[in-house]
């Protein structure tokens, strides 16, 4: 952000909430962006509008912007806006090694042997990587006040920390909607649980081979428990999917809305599947790709 702000034609507005996008009378272009800022409503105009609020809030913004020509929300003639929400099946797990683990850069190794399938399961299991190194305070949250500090220190010294990711499959019923008062509601039922449990089992089966006791695999308190809860939306994607068919997607392959000539969405909303890795680099690469397309259009 800071390098971008060095340009005279870039302005960053903080404490600014985009309430609604307004279209022109034809319904084919967004011509006004309504923003609540410092207690007052401001309106902004532009030839090209890019939405990038994250998969939950981008979908909510398009739904909030419904009008007579777009009664189900902007770009939502296909009724896919808000649907197919995905957030990955993630688990943070800690193994206790028989040897001390003095690493300073824990998140440097990954294992994709079971990414597509395994010897006993024909479907993808996912990705295993190292997690940031545990410290005694992380264990203290789960252990309680009576746990001896020396024990927690010893556990942290011998900890091997793992992050497991399995694909969250697209389901139209996993979706973002708006309540009557305009607040956001997220409806989500996890899936692909079998694949994720099998991935955990594969990790447990490897622990003896790497000098750990196989029955000493502990849930990490990083996300208040064994798995990221519904509030952990860091890997959110899929709610404004792209595609070549306007009947089944909201955006075209350049992430422009099928039904609007000047509206683009360039966050994780465009995903049609979640894979089993962090989506951040894909989001960045796609934003650069779409930026090139917008630049060509402006020229």
Q: What keyword list fits this structure?
A:
299 residues, 22% strand, 12 strands, 22% helix, alpha+beta
Average of pLDDT:
89
Helix run count: 6
State the assembly state of the protein chains.
single chain
Quickly give the structural class: alpha+beta
Poorly predicted parts: 221-226
The amount of helix comes to 10-25%
Which word captures the global form? elongated
Distance N to C terminus: 24 Å
Share of residues in strands: 15-25%
Compute the CA-based radius of gyration. 23 Å
β-strand number = 12
Instruction: Give the strand order of the largest sheet, numbering strands 1, 2, ... along the chain.
Output: 6-7-8-5-11
The string of secondary-structure elements, in order, is HEEEEHEEEHHEEEHEEH
Biggest sheet record: 5 strands, antiparallel
